[in-house]
Structure formats: C-alpha cells, structure tokens
Design a protein that fits this description.
Length: 59
Amino acid sequence: MGSRSLPDMLRSTLQSHVAEADLQDDEELRNILDKLTKLSSKVAETKARVIAQRAEKNK
C-alpha cells in the first residue's frame, strides 16, 4: 500500500469534518474539494513520472 498524498489527506479530513457537522457542505467547500482532487491527480502523475525516470536511469 502506497502512502497517501497531502491533497488526499486534506480532502479526507475536510470530508470528515463535514460528516461531523463541523463544516457546511457548500459551494466553497465543493470548490476546495474539487481543487484538491485535481491536485492529487497531478501529484500522482508526477510521482509516476519520477518513478519511471528513475527506473530508466537504473537500467
């Protein structure tokens, strides 16, 4: 199991706060969650690219 990225952890924490009624599920929160999702995808893509470059370098 890989480690979770910071955007994933932030999104999970925010969703937990919504579930506990600490935060309201409003448009601002949905925008933040959407941006965190996009950032998480970029982190995963970059991580995969770095791993591939390292593997190519070690051949």
